[in-house]
Design a protein that fits this description.
- The chain has helices at residues 2-25, 30-37, 41-53, 121-136, 175-189, 198-210, and strands spanning 57-60, 76-79, 85-91, 96-103, 108-115, 144-151, 193-197, 218-223, 227-233, 236-237.
- With 247 residues, the protein is α+β, with helices and mostly antiparallel strands.
- The protein has 2 domains: 2-79, Arc Repressor Mutant, subunit A, CATH 1.10.10; 83-200, 2-Layer Sandwich (Nucleotidyltransferase, domain 5), CATH 3.30.420.
- The radius of gyration is 21 Å and the shape is globular.
Length: 247
């Protein structure tokens, strides 16, 4: 019994490892997965066959592989876009609240935007909740896996800001405000919620689109009401002095 349990645990870990590899590398062949993970070919082919049968992943002839053998037509694997959904939110400096519904391939299925000028914190949250509810009412809510929010302002890590601003109004840099926003949304949707400065979200989005071409070092510039930046080196967001990143 212990041997079976241990084998099941190892196999579950390898399934997760293969899924993570496919998700992070978009189009990968079975041979790419073997090289990347070190899992033996028999297990990779067996697990991939099972994932295809369960329609968790899909395969196609289009993609870029590290397997350059001439005459070999590789089949590329990717996460099935219809496996689930995520919600993306952008709170802009221009008083615009944008909300989008995306599939697992990050295709936009629906988007909404409203003006939040002269609204206080709770009014904005109420509008946001209404937008999200409207988007997910026609889909299987069990297939919504999380909410990501791009907020204005600089990044503050493990530090309380005491700059005299009223909390819960427009001080999106205040950790208390961020935590309050998470709590209010979690009370309604019970989903993982991620909140990051908009420039960091933007540079990560560019990295996600460009990493297949080998770009791991990226600078994103945002020129609007001011000048901000998101900086990524070796696939990681850069954090500078006083925990401030590129803003």
């Amino acid at each position: 019994m212990k041997i079976k349990k241990k084998y099941k645990s190892i196999n579950t870990y390898r399934v997760k490892q293969i899924l993570k590899t496919i998700f992070e590398n978009m189009n990968f062949t079975r041979e790419d997965i073997i090289r990347k993970t070190g899992i033996n070919s028999f297990q990779v082919y067996s697990i991939v066959a099972n994932l295809l049968k369960r329609k968790i992943i899909v395969e196609s002839q289009k993609g870029i592989s590290s397997d350059i053998r001439i005459g070999r037509r590789s089949k590329f694997l990717s996460i099935n876009p219809n496996m689930g959904y995520v919600i993306g939110v952008s709170i802009g400096h221009n008083d615009i609240l944008e909300t989008g519904l995306f599939d697992f391939a990050l295709n936009t299925l629906e988007s909404k935007s409203i003006t939040i000028e002269n609204m206080d914190f709770y009014e904005i949250v109420e509008k946001l909740i209404r937008q999200i509810k409207s988007m997910i009412k026609s889909i299987d809510k069990r297939k919504v896996y999380g909410i990501g929010i791009a907020r204005p302002g600089i990044t503050v890590v493990d530090r309380t800001i005491t700059d005299g601003n009223e909390p819960y109004v427009f001080d999106w840099e205040n950790p208390e405000v961020i935590e309050k926003l998470k709590t209010l949304l979690d009370d309604v949707f019970h989903l993982p919620i991620y909140i990051e400065p908009k420039n960091n979200v933007a540079v990560f989005g560019e990295y996600w689109n460009l990493k297949q071409k080998g770009y791991n070092n990226i600078v994103y510039l945002d020129i609007g009401n001011g000048v901000g930046a998101g900086i990524m080196i070796d696939g990681k967001i850069v954090i500078g002095g006083k925990d401030i990143r590129g803003d």
